[in-house]
Amino acid sequence: MYKLFYASESASMGVRVLLEEIGADYELLETSVEAGAPRPAAQLAINPNGWVPVLMWEDRAMYECVAITIFLGDCHPEAGLAPAVDAVERGVYLQTLVYFSSSVQNAFQLSYYPDRFADDPEGEPGAQRRGARRLRETLGVIDAQIGANRWVLGDKFTAVDIYLFMLTTWLQTDRGHPPLHTLPNVARISAAVQARPSVQLVYANWIAGLDG
After folding, report:
1. Segments of the chain scoring below 70 in pLDDT
2. Runs of H (alpha helix) within the chain
3. Rounded distance between C-alpha atoms, residue 10 and residue 114, angstroms
4. How far, in whole angstroms, is CA 8 from its chain's centroid?
5. Are 163 and 153 in contact (CB under 8 A)?
6. What is the pTM of this model?
7. Does 136 share its domain with 194?
8. Considering 79, 110, 133, which residue would you say is the last residue of a domain?
9. C-alpha distances in Å from residue 191, one per residue of 37, 169, 188
10. Residues 203 and 177 in one domain
11. Distance from C-alpha of 182 to C-alpha of 187, rounded to nearest angstrom
């Protein structure tokens, strides 16, 4: 059984979707992503940053969403969420996941947490604006990469599509983020992923909010 330190509206939701797709037994360990809120000692012992997701199994544990995504895909090949190590698509699979983590998520960090990038409060609005511009740039790269593909990597659904959907749930136009409809290929894949039973379960409250 896996144990997942978990908080709503965080990257741990994407990992939970992966666990549902795999069909693994798992337990959610509730925590928080709020600044200043206490974290469980067991979570901090693994990730002293206090961030989620944190995944535990047997006597082992790891953090960082992209690392967990690669790990789960490789440990459960029967789920078909990751190309085999020697598959032609393996390179672009790894490339895209790391790009999501290092470039797209960094842009979200600028937008949501400008205090981490500015020396003083006066510099925070500039960091937020740069984050919004960077989201347009990085998601635009992904939109072009997808092109006419059915899924991000081609004809086969993978963990990359789940990760992309997770990222799109963080877009907020009132923060200057690009509207999803301006990224038609990203929007198309996001909608297809949203229809999956695993996503309908994990993101039920978020989906309900779209209708509210």
Report:
1. 212
2. 12-22, 41-46, 65-75, 90-99, 105-112, 124-146, 159-168, 184-194, 197-202, 204-211
3. 17
4. 12
5. no
6. 0.96
7. yes
8. 79
9. 33, 11, 5
10. yes
11. 8
